[in-house]
Specification:
globular; 3-stranded mixed beta sheet; alpha/beta; single chain; Rossmann fold
């Protein structure tokens, strides 16, 4: 399915968190997809200024300083909007552990503010970007993202008539994003090491920024309401990623790979050794599509009978096991090296 189709032509789109890694790429792709207006909001004043300069020649793109905690601002920005893509969030696990109140205000109350604004302005569709950490969460960030998903599902179950269609997506680790380990490992390799690992047995689902944005944009129109879409992703051992990066990148910084040591620092508070994208409870209500899984709501809509029919269904009888990075086969080091090179993730930029 192409993310760029005629469905975007003539639409008015709101992107929250437009200065983030995902928000920027959403803006970039949608800017040539035919919307008559794109509004982006973010609370990062400096990045918003530079982004405004970058798009100064495109007058249908309007960027504003704002925070999803501000319900009245969201209500104003959503007036006349057709589609909302909610990408704003607090995403760093340790920082959310240290400041759970802020995580609640942004990742839970902020989602409810988006929902309320969409309902008040009769938006057509709303997509919420969630995380694999929302599945059986062990930390504040994941718990807040799970609550965001449940708020979206409940909003859809309670909608009447032609109200907004609310849908969620779950991301794995987006390689190369500001929150991923790649920038950290790159800086450590450039400095001659050591490269720090919390635990050498840790596994993670990975996806490129292109895949994350494709999932989000496709979910806008695939969504029937209340479900969560998950991209089928590759799995890596973090130890393998560190070793591949040392082998491939150390020479670019004039270093000998053999001189760069690995140091195990221990698991951080709330951190898992593996991640899950579909848990045991969800397997029986999950449809497998060609590129995605669609996790259907645990409870059905109260006021309408939603037909969860999608194109390209592989199986509609549930899936056999949880989608868990500890049981999925990880990429070999050679496949990982090829994957990172293909997606330009081994550049020597610090």
């Amino acid at each position: 399915m192409s993310v760029m189709n005629d469905a975007w032509v003539g639409k008015r789109v709101l992107i929250t968190g437009v200065c983030g890694t995902v928000g920027r790429e959403l803006l970039s792709q949608l800017s040539s997809a035919g919307p008559v207006e794109i509004i982006g909001i973010d609370n990062n004043e400096t990045e918003l200024f530079f982004l405004s300069q970058e798009y100064s020649g495109k007058h249908f793109i309007r960027l504003f300083l704002g925070d999803v905690r501000d319900a009245s601002m969201l209500a104003r920005m959503t007036a006349g909007i057709n589609i909302v893509i909610h990408a704003a969030a607090l995403k760093h696990v340790i920082l959310c552990e240290q400041a759970p109140r802020d995580a609640v205000q942004t990742n839970i109350l902020g989602v409810q503010n988006v929902i309320d604004a969409a309902l008040a302005n009769q938006v057509e569709r709303v997509v919420f970007t969630s995380s694999d950490k929302a599945v059986n969460p062990t930390n504040v960030m994941g718990t807040s993202k799970l609550m965001g998903e449940r708020l979206m599902t409940a909003a859809n179950a309670l909608r009447r008539g032609e109200g907004p269609v609310f849908t969620s997506t779950r991301f794995g680790n987006i390689l190369g994003s500001r929150g991923s380990v790649i920038p950290l490992f790159t800086r450590q390799i450039a400095a001659g090491g050591p490269v720090t690992l919390t635990n050498p047995t840790m596994t993670r689902f990975i996806m490129t920024l292109k895949e994350a944005v494709e999932l989000t944009l496709n979910s806008v129109f695939m969504g029937r309401g209340g479900e969560v879409f998950v991209t089928k992703m590759k799995v890596v051992r973090i130890l393998d990623m560190a070793e591949v990066m040392i082998e491939q990148m150390a020479p670019k910084f004039g270093k000998n790979p053999k001189d760069i040591n690995l140091t195990v620092t221990g698991v951080k508070p709330g951190e898992k050794l593996y991640e899950e994208l579909v848990n045991e409870e969800e397997t029986r209500r999950t449809l497998e599509l060609e590129k995605y899984f669609a996790v259907l709501p645990a409870f059905k809509s109260i006021y309408e009978n939603i037909d969860y029919t999608y194109t390209g269904v592989v199986t509609c009888a549930g899936i056999n096991s949880p989608y868990n990075s500890s049981v999925e086969r990880p990429m070999s080091k050679q496949d990982l090296a090829d994957y990172m090179a293909t997606h330009n993730l081994l550049s020597a930029e610090v």
